[in-house]
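Predict the 3D structure for this chain.
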Amino acid sequence: MFGLLRTTLALMVMVYHLFIGILPLGTYAVFGFYIISGYLMTLIMHESYGYTLIGRYSFATNRFLRLYPQYWAAAFLSILLITILGAHVTTSFHKSIYMPISIEDILDNLLMAFTAWYPNSINPRLVPPTWAIIVEIFFYMLICIGISKTFLRVKTWLFLSVCYVVFSYVAGWDWKARYFPVAAASLPFAIGATIYFLSKNEQLMKAFNKLPLSARSLYVLFLSNCLIWIFLSRENIGDFVEIGFYSNIIIGSLLAYALVTGGKIIEINKNTDKFIGDYSYPIYLLHWQCGLIASFIIFGEAFHELSYRGLVSLIFAFFIVAALSTIFIFGLDTHIQKVRKRIKANKSLQRTLVPRAAEL
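Done. Predicted structure below.
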């Protein structure tokens, strides 16, 4: 249900980093990912794995297999680029892409353990966007433990998340405190978990479906809101720019709910939607490296900028990231998926056998 949306969000991040460079395009996408993850992780814990010890273990194992093999492959590509082009080239393209030397830096990059209040501040990061994946992993662990096991817990979580945002304004913190830290991501994750429970309310679903808020219209509104605030952001409107940020969270939440309750952005079947969605993660992991390769091949230098040559480089990077993502999906992830399915199948068998054993 989320495949097309997830890949749209990944491409938004790519265009932001490699071309436009104006915050709404990237920040809106990342929080969109968080909302989706909050819903999906709550869904699969409730309906696929359960809160038994084996259920939690299976969930954690499958999350590891989903995230780390492709991450290691992307990190290896960065190492190749550093080795071939030199750190002076890669760091001129992105300040985080250079070889980890110390044991701490090596472990950070091997384990994707960029743990700090601002995880994006830790360098080197062989795959720069992974600071947000660390945030995701933190909430995966909380959801696995049971933070979204009941609606009461989720409502409490949502309330505390709102309190953090309000406190950040009262304390005079700048916008970064409401975006980069783990605590900032609590709000969209809690919203995603809330959507799971709201989707079980048939009366609410019927009332929502009567509104002129189709998944398609909300998707267009989501993108339009982003474009509007990209232009407004260039006008130096200060803190008012955050109106667009929180409007985006509201629109993104409504869009997620519309998709969960059966809406579609376009008329495609589940398999096609999943196939499109499979590209979101490798695009997210690889877009910096592909942008570097594209600019260096075409122009002989590493750069990303809002210009004609920046656009040419971006277009070439699209082709490179599509090719490498396809290799990642069919050459790596497809084989790992087989292992993940076996783990999930064993868990499903266990869920059916336990009640029967209890009856005996």
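Confidence is low (pLDDT under 50) at residues 353-360.
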